[in-house]
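thread: overnight batch results

M.L. [08:02]
morning all. the overnight job finished for the chain we discussed friday. pasting input first so we're all looking at the same thing
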Amino acid sequence: MPPSRSVPAAGTLPWRVVDGELQVLLVHRPRYDDWSWAKGKLDPGEDYAIAAARETFEETDFMVRLGRPLPDARYQILERDHTFAVKSVRYWASTITGGSGKPRNEIDKVAWMSPTQAHAALDYARDRDQLLALVAMHRAGELDTWPLIIVRHATALPRSKWSQKDWLRPLDPDGQARAEALVPVLTAYGPLRAVSSSSVRCRDTLAPYARAGKTALKLRDSLSEEVFDKNPERALKTVRKVIRRGRPTALCSHRPLLPAILGQLLEVAADADVAALLQESIELGMDKGEAIVCHLSGTGAGAKIVAAERHTP
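M.L. [08:03]
and the structure it wrote out:
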């Protein structure tokens, strides 16, 4: 009988360029005496991206910023109760943002290797799929990316239950919980800037991340509904400025603005998959508290979105 249980897991391929040569980080597990990628099982209810960054840190003591998604891996494993299950692993390219690189948590060695060395050292053929994809991205000049994360504000008190000006309307308890839940999701991608509509419900959606990451929260009237109604071009100008600067950024706004903002990003979509994700989000809308992670290569007129991901509540 085929295994009926799926075991979700996530991991990363940290990479760097030294003297013009690409290197990737492998880990060695003494229990299996094998070389592979840093990875591990998801905790109950955990997001894949959160788990990928967490597991990398727990095994290598390196903090990472997730970059482009890489091919998944699916394979059969024998559990401790002697039953079989299918392990499904999602991977991301990643860059080091801190930490010591001291192996821990069932890892006794970590090593930076060239792609050729890594290809030879990896003990499982399935692990070479991620390596080959990463190398292809590097050769195409599309591995070094930065994230622009578009966030729709979380759920707020209904207009019918709010008597003051609409821009002052706050998040409801569910919205506050979602704002807190977004913190580790955003942290996995490491935006250095948090830019929000000046409306309270948008501000408070990003405020927990700004506090946790010690990142200044920049408020922009141009991203509010009130200003958009009068002058839609101001919101698009703000988005273009973010793309021109090229710094990892989380940007929070409202439902009426999102089709225009996503439409602006659609103009720099690099392939059909990215275009389809953005087009679907334009047509069907984003959920409250949803985040769309756009991975951009380049800045300004040379910027293009080479991958995109959705994180729904």
